[in-house]
UniProtKB/TrEMBL annotation:
PANTHER family: DEAMINATED GLUTATHIONE AMIDASE, NITRILASE-RELATED. It comes from Peptoniphilus lacrimalis. InterPro entries: C-N_Hydrolase, C-N_Hydrolase_sf. The keyword Hydrolase applies. This is (R)-stereoselective amidase. Residues 4-245 form the CN hydrolase domain. It comes from the Bacteria. One of its GO terms (molecular function) is hydrolase activity. PROSITE patterns: CN_HYDROLASE. Its EC number is 3.5.1.100. Keywords: Hydrolase. Belongs to the carbon-nitrogen hydrolase superfamily. NIT1/NIT2 family.
């Protein structure tokens, strides 16, 4: 692993997909002007987090949102971790993330496994859960990818560590009610559990369709310390990831060795 700069995009999704695409492009441009090597988008960045919009804004793989992410990765020579968008496959819709390298080539994808079916809202009314997970390699780090409600399931994160993850991206759209209670807790716990950097871009809060979003895009250290909290408003932050912190945390607290030595 080596040092890199990650650009966090916190965007408020509107009821106009064309606007969302244009605004995302503007924010990615700002992140790249600030020197980002990797840019991370939030969950459902092109689509308000509502079942009706998942159906209305769904795309097949390779259509406009996908092509824009691919184009921006190549234009700026960055890795783009594409948050997630609603992707249709036959009669099913997936909450799916794509990762593109600096040549604009898709190198990884992940469909959200654990669907948010609590608090009077059922994501599964429209979305089908994914069935697999893994890591992708860059010259900066081995990276894992999970989405939002996956944060409640530490076994998924441990699997990513077993696969070699040093950094984990977790695009999200927590609601205000659950965000107040669990957002920071989940980020800090999963970062400490895995001894990875946890990079969690979120949808911004606004007075329209994203008025219930918790926001607070966050970067957490391998020690479980909050390094960046972007608050509620739309914006861009570029943050330097220091590779030595992963090695240091794993040396100081050798969880892997402890697991090998324990007897249950």
């Amino acid at each position: 692993m080596k040092n890199f700069k990650v650009g966090m995009i916190q965007i408020a999704s509107k009821g106009d997909k064309d606007y969302n695409l244009k605004r995302m492009e503007e924010l990615v441009d700002i992140a790249c002007q600030k020197g980002a090597d990797v840019v991370a988008l939030p969950e459902m960045w092109n689509c308000p987090y509502q079942n009706s919009y998942f159906t209305k804004f769904k795309e097949q793989e390779g259509e406009e949102s996908y092509e824009l992410m691919k184009k921006l990765a190549k234009r700026y020579g960055i890795y783009l971790v594409g948050g997630s968008i609603p992707i249709s496959d036959g009669d099913k819709i997936y909450n799916k993330s794509f990762v593109f390298n600096a040549c604009g080539k898709e190198i990884f994808s992940y469909s959200k496994i654990n669907l948010f079916d609590i608090e009077g809202f059922k994501e599964s009314d429209t979305i089908t859960g994914g069935k697999s997970l893994g890591v992708f390699q860059t010259e900066f780090a081995n990276a894992g990818l999970l989405i939002c409600y996956d944060s409640r399931f530490p076994e998924l994160f441990q699997s990513l560590v077993n696969f070699g993850a040093e950094v984990i991206f977790m695009p999200s759209t927590f609601m205000i009610k659950t965000g107040k209670r669990f957002w920071e807790l989940c980020n800090r716990a999963r970062a400490m559990d895995t001894q990875c950097f946890l990079i969690s871009p979120s949808i911004a809060r606004d007075n329209e369709l994203s008025k219930n979003a918790w926001a607070h895009s966050m970067i957490t250290s391998p020690y479980g310390e909050v390094l960046l909290d972007m608050g509620e408003d739309e914006g861009v932050e570029v943050f330097s990831i220091e590779a030595d912190l992963v090695k240091e945390a794993r040396k100081n607290f050798p969880y892997k060795k402890s697991r090998e030595n324990r007897s249950l």
